Amino acid sequence: MCGIVGYIGDGQATPILLEGLKRLEYRGYDSAGVALYEDGKLQIRKTKGRLTALEDLIKRECVAGSVGIGHTRWATHGEPSDINAHPHVNSKGTIAVVHNGIIENYMYLKERLQQEGYKFVSDTDTEVIAQLIDYFYKGDILDAVINAVSRLEGSYALAILSTYEPDKVIAVRRDSPLIVGLGEDGNYLASDIPAILKHTRNVYILEDGEIAVLTRDKVTVLDSLGKEIKKEVFEVKWDVEAAEKGGYQHFMLKEINEQPKAVRDTLAGRLPDGSDVKLDDIKLSADDINKINKIFIVACGTAYHAGLVGKNLIERLAKIPVEADIASEFRYRDPLVDEHSLTIVISQSGETADTLAAMREAKKKGSRILAVTNVVGSSVAREADDVLYTWAGPEIAVASTKAYTTQLVSMYLLAIKLGLERGTITEDYAEMLKSELRQLSEKIQKILDNQDTVQKLADNNYTAKDVFFLGRGLDYSVSMEGSLKLKEISYIHSEAYAAGELKHGTLALIENGTLVIALVTQKHLYDKMLSNIKEVTTRGAHVIAVALESMREIEKAVDDVIYIPDCAEEVAPVLAVIPLQLLAYYMAVARGCDVDKPRNLAKSVTVE
Amino acid sequence: MCGIVGYIGDGQATPILLEGLKRLEYRGYDSAGVALYEDGKLQIRKTKGRLTALEDLIKRECVAGSVGIGHTRWATHGEPSDINAHPHVNSKGTIAVVHNGIIENYMYLKERLQQEGYKFVSDTDTEVIAQLIDYFYKGDILDAVINAVSRLEGSYALAILSTYEPDKVIAVRRDSPLIVGLGEDGNYLASDIPAILKHTRNVYILEDGEIAVLTRDKVTVLDSLGKEIKKEVFEVKWDVEAAEKGGYQHFMLKEINEQPKAVRDTLAGRLPDGSDVKLDDIKLSADDINKINKIFIVACGTAYHAGLVGKNLIERLAKIPVEADIASEFRYRDPLVDEHSLTIVISQSGETADTLAAMREAKKKGSRILAVTNVVGSSVAREADDVLYTWAGPEIAVASTKAYTTQLVSMYLLAIKLGLERGTITEDYAEMLKSELRQLSEKIQKILDNQDTVQKLADNNYTAKDVFFLGRGLDYSVSMEGSLKLKEISYIHSEAYAAGELKHGTLALIENGTLVIALVTQKHLYDKMLSNIKEVTTRGAHVIAVALESMREIEKAVDDVIYIPDCAEEVAPVLAVIPLQLLAYYMAVARGCDVDKPRNLAKSVTVE
Q1: Cα B193-B194-B200 angle, rounded to 5 deg
Q2: Is there a single domain that holds both residue A535 and residue A516?
Q3: CATH number for the domain including B12?
Q4: % of chain B with per-residue pLDDT over 90
Q5: Number of Cβ atoms within 10 Å of the Cβ of A556
Q6: A231 to A175, A201, A292, B112, B415: CA distances (angstroms)
């Protein structure tokens, strides 16, 4: 995720761009920049750091002009730095581009352009776009843009400004959001509505493949073939605060609903046809992989729960013993880590103090480190030997949702990779799993489309005093995450239990009306789970099951069921957690809790 | 633990003995037997099974007489069987012995007697006593007994009946309880008061080394040198129910208070001088031990918590990777167990269905099995390759206490054994740990002597709605057990947390007045724990710390402190859990809960 803005009109562009970027900082904040057209030249100001750093820079090095584009970045390709900040320009300095998204074939395009003599200065995929437009420029900037974007694979929202036709800002999108604001004194462009709400409430919401050409007094929208289309004006009724949350009541709900995209982005380019998986940033050779005799997965909180699923999957697929451990415990217990170990650390922010400390401990003992993180250039990413990025975009809500599902997806990618390299799974099996992964995004959407059901259950049960989550195997790991969500935001004391373990003590807590959430997505454990459900229903528990669509007969055994689409049981965690996130969210809302900022908690825990 | 009874008087002995044994069944119930003197001969009736099996046998094969001894067994040496049931007799059938305790040097004595031509029919240590008395018999049975017991090492309460002087029952004890009842129509002998309460309330409570000679109208008590001493008559004021619990309000409290003895018994004979540990029933050779490349510890509930301590200790001392797992999860996750694995299963009853199933799964995969159990001849013990018995005696209360501490002790014994065999610890270190283990029993007693403090804290806090237990490292494992105890018997929803992990989510549940129990016994984690305590106190939590005596400065940081005696941090779990057991107990009592039989739970879970 990144934020982009654009302006062309009668006023000064700089304050409008900076104000717009401020409203988009939730989409990224590791670097920022603007490009304005002034006196026949493009003036670029860009810098690493939050938006205030850019403001300071502009104070020192003023820039004027009534047309410009701007960007606030959440690094994907290339760490946060002045050079990698947007806008990016072609070598001649005549075309400036800001970009939100990931160009999957940028390496191929970059090499081709290098053969043509193009020189690159940054590590980004975006610079390739500027050069590619240059390559296609034959006197008509719009033609050049249309030609260039037709060669791009991946996701993008782009704003382009050139010295060739400085009275135009061109915008185009695919799989990344972009809107056009229709103002009195000019026209606007932005990733999201809050950026322009101060100036206008009339917007075009661009669809995939559409191209908008903004001039001072007009906006033309073309389809991907270059034919003009008539767009309907959408009148924004939200206030600024609601607009920042995309119309959702809370960032958490917004982020829950972003999961189809986050999962798709994290898989993008990594699942080529056939059985292979492609993990660019991982330099582990086949030989390295075969030498690993033990894997440690070390993390905290939600990321630790993703690690538990990782343990299960890696052991199952790659037959390497895996130990998942809480970072604050791992660090102080002198674990048996050595140079044949691989330590996988998982941290959304990449700055979690406990995880960092544990990682350094493992490194000192000679272990190779593989980081799974959401933040390019974070401490964890910098210090690890290999990095597998989740592409969830910035997560604002304290309670993690889309970071978790993308961490899960990373575990699958890794497990398949390791299994294939070690020859412990067949190619057929790998292809089956890949096909299941490709379907996840759509299946998550299907669950989200049905969130009313979950909300209704939440409204009926939000007064619960204690809640127990039950599951076996992978369902147990997901239970732990479901329970943590509920605790974090609703302050209900909930606890997850391996379903078979309940009778060894905690069953004493079950009394008439106790709420139990039972996860039933593992077909081979279905009968055992039914027995455990029976144990609690006979003690009077009120049971909500999360089950596969094909398990309709479970309705006889429980009070309520939330169904998730059928899937291979290996990938069920990614689907099963969605209703649990929603349940926690709606129960917390019903209880009147401050969902996005739960008491006592911080988003990223940078103290031990 | 076993139960013994004796009677000599004017009435029929059989019903008196059977009635007495019934009252002692809580001490053991795997086999039972009686010996009576009738027509110049000893009549023995004994059988495997509960007391009803003996009653049936006696109905079929009547036995009469006014002098006799009886026994209900909890197997230690030799599995439950007709042959191993007590009484045991010498080969001539002239001396019958019933025994409660463990003779540590019985193998040595047995071999010596075999060299003298004695033949043995059972696997028990008790048969050795009968033969040894025979060996020393030179015309005076009392002399023979005194000579024999002076050769015994270990613990025993004995009742002896012989054809040589059939108007006498001789009784002697060391480290196992024994009382004499002074009746109108005869005199009585028993392991515990309830067995004789129907007949008399006047008793002698025998002390270590004392010998009692019972005749029909008199009881003489001698000291270990054979000199008569004057005993004071103790008048029992308890009713039968209270007497069964040794005067305690509940079995659980009785069993908590039995822990010094249970720990001592479990260590008995296993800690010879020097660095070695002696584990008779473990046939693992040095070679076997060196070939182990992975250990799995598999158990349920409380036993699983002991396994977590085992993991820490074995990894620390023997440098073998250990994975502790919940049995019901282990079984179904296709764990990476093979012929180089050692699987340690822990089960008090030895019949826990989940543990049994997990054990069979591991066995099928080629793993060697080592069982830690409290019940000789149990399924787990029979099917394992090696057995390490805990000598806690029967545990009646559903909430396990003395079984846990003896399981912990077993983990230490194993860890030291493995560490020595693999050369990963020095002999000095082993000796240090052994010395710490030897001191445990006394230190537990010191904590128990101070239980008023804990009771007071329980009385002040029993209305708590939610309780959190915090600890790091070994303290975390103990926290889990403390939390489980509280849940099981008080029905308070409590949860244990790795102290460093709390801030990654659950901290949201801490509000003004929330009760937090913080374990602080690990010196190297002291500062970190203090920070975590600070995190909760600043949110208003009421904190009770369990800390070492030498950590007085902790008083400044918390509301209350329960001190345990200073000790090496490795063995601290055995001490730290005692106040947690007491706290759970007294809070449950204050809440009016049925402590010994908590709702929904069974003592030994023989279903999955």
Answers
A1: 70
A2: yes
A3: 3.60.20.10
A4: 83
A5: 7
A6: 19, 15, 57, 105, 75
Last residue of a domain, one of A244, A271, A289: A244
Q: Is A504 in Cβ contact with B605 (below 8 Å)? A: yes
> Could you tell me the end-to-end alpha-carbon distance of chain A, in angstroms, rounded to an integer?
29
pTM, full prediction: 0.84
- The tens digit of pLDDT for each residue in A413-471 reads 999 999 999 999 999 999 999 999 999 999 999 999 999 999 999 999 999 999 999 99
Look at residue A493 and give its three-state secondary structure: strand
Q: Is A121 helix (H, G, I), strand (E, B) or coil?
A: coil
Specify whether A81 is located in the same domain as A120. Answer: yes
Bridge partners of B557?
Answer: none
Contacts of A605 in chain B (CB under 8 A): 503-504
Strand pairing partners for B498? Answer: B471
Boundary-marking domain end, from B416, B438, B460: B438
Question: In angstroms, rounded to a whole number, what is the distance separating the alpha carbons of residues A251 and A264?
Answer: 20
Q: How far is B312 from chain A (nearest CA, A)?
A: 8
Q: What is the mean pLDDT of chain B?
A: 94
pLDDT over 80 at B561, yes or no: yes
Tell me how many residue pairs between chain A and chain B have CB atoms under 8 A apart.
161
Nearest 5°: phi and psi at A344? -100, 120
Q: Which residues in chain A come in under a pLDDT of 50?
A: none
A300 carries an active-site annotation = no
Q: What pLDDT is recorded for position B606?
A: 66
Q: Which domain holds residue A38?
A: 3-244
DSSP assignments along B494-546, one per residue: EEEEEGGGGGGTGGGG--TT-EEEEEE--GGGHHHHHHHHHHHHTTT-EEEEE
A198, A294, A528, A603: the active-site residue: A603
State residue B177's pLDDT score. Answer: 87
Q: What is the CATH number of the domain that holds B360?
A: 3.40.50.10490
What's the first-to-final CA gap in chain B, in angstroms?
Answer: 29
Q: What percent of chain B has pLDDT over 70?
A: 99
Write down the pLDDT at residue B354: 93
Active site residues of B: 2, 603
Contacts 24+ apart (CB under 8 A), A144-147: A145/A170, A145/A172, A145/A211, A146/A211, A146/A224, A146/A226
Q: Radius of gyration of chain B from Cα atoms?
A: 25
Residue B29: per-residue pLDDT: 82
| Confidence band for B608, pLDDT divided at 50, 70 and 90 | low
pLDDT for residue B414: 97
Tell me the C-alpha distance between A549 and A565, whole Å.
5
One domain for residues A416 and A466? no
